[in-house]
């Protein structure tokens, strides 16, 4: 494996009976970057992470993580990685400090070094005043910070985070991501799964998974720039009626009401501002149409494209 890559996987697959959970996924993750997995529940994010960690045997494919062949050298890998699950997995009947002391013992850290490292992490993650508090009584954000402290206690080269912010408030999520960037600045590689678009935008590089397949891979800005569809913003008094008028039309890939505005994702050759406005006017929905900037949600919709469902009937002219 090339020295600047922390993870390389080729043809990675996992099958449970007749269910193909991960289907021939190729991944390359460079060192000291945040690499994101974006996808809906059931897309294969957690299964892929567990295979990369050596916790789950792949059905097919080759994996190298930090230069080690996985799963053959999974035991050697354990000392060099950290893993944080979506569900809080520390002991709720132990205090904050006792949880970290237990993890230090698991990692065979010398007592003096462990004490110094724990003190540092308690300060860094704003838990010093709660060191004697039972972990089970912490708030969601505090539990998240404790779990991160536990995952990085032994200073891993590579950190796996499986939807770590799904149960915390926006401010805690922002603070958590500040901590992740601090870790990458210090040389840690991070692979994080999420279903939040704003978090996906923060990643250096991003993979979009859908039904076990890798459907997009690149830097967020690159993915937006390469979007093969145009984004149109429709301003009208009846956005739900506008949505109904465009639902099912050839070339229309995505429709989403954002406040009083309708966001339209459409094939470039099929629609432009004038044709959209004319189409809506003919159906009794006068509107102004202007070009919009592509975002990751547009990329996600395009990459995981499925047939559009009919919009519910509007109950009023300004629905």
TrEMBL record:
Domain of life: Bacteria
Chain ranges passing through the membrane: none
Keywords, in A-Z order: ATP-binding, Nucleotide-binding
Signal peptide: none
Species for this entry: Tahibacter aquaticus
Designated name of the protein: ABC-2 type transport system ATP-binding protein
Boundaries of every ABC transporter domain copy: 7-236
InterPro entries found in the cross-reference section: AAA+_ATPase, ABC_transporter-like_ATP-bd, ABC_transporter-like_CS, P-loop_NTPase
GO molecular function: ATP binding; ATP hydrolysis activity
CDD domains (alphabetical): ABC_DR_subfamily_A
Keyword hit for Metal-binding: no
PANTHER family, alphabetized: ABC TRANSPORTER G FAMILY MEMBER 20 ISOFORM X1, ATP-BINDING CASSETTE, SUB-FAMILY H, MEMBER 1
């Amino acid at each position: 494996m090339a020295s600047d890559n922390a993870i390389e996987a080729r043809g990675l697959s996992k099958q449970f009976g007749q269910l193909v959970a991960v289907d021939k996924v190729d991944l390359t993750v460079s060192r000291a970057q945040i690499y994101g997995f974006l996808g809906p529940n059931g897309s294969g994010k957690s299964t892929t992470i567990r295979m990369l960690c050596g916790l789950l045997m792949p059905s097919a494919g080759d994996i190298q993580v930090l230069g080690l062949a996985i799963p053959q050298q999974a035991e050697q890998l354990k000392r060099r990685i950290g893993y944080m699950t979506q569900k809080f997995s520390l002991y709720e009947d132990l205090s904050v400090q006792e949880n970290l002391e237990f993890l230090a013992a698991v990692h065979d850290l010398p007592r003096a070094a462990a004490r110094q490292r724990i003190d540092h992490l308690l300060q860094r993650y704003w838990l010093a005043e709660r060191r004697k508090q039972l972990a089970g009584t912490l708030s969601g954000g505090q539990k998240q910070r404790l779990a991160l402290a536990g995952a990085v206690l032994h200073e891993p080269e590579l950190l796996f985070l499986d939807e770590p912010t799904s149960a915390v408030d926006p401010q805690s999520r922002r603070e958590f991501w500040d901590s992740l960037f601090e870790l990458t600045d210090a040389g840690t590689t991070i692979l994080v799964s999420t279903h939040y678009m704003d978090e996906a935008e923060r990643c250096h590089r991003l993979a979009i998974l859908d039904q076990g397949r890798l459907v997009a891979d690149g830097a967020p800005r690159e993915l937006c720039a390469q979007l093969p569809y145009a984004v149109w913003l429709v301003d009208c008094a009846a956005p739900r009626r506008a949505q109904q008028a465009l639902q099912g039309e050839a070339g229309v890939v995505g429709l989403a009401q954002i406040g009083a505005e309708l966001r339209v994702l459409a094939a470039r050759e099929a629609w432009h501002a004038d044709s959209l406005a004319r189409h809506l006017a003919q159906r009794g929905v006068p509107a102004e149409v202007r070009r919009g900037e592509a975002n990751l949600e547009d990329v996600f919709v395009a990459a995981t494209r499925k047939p559009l469902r009919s919009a519910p009937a509007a109950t009023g002219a300004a629905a």
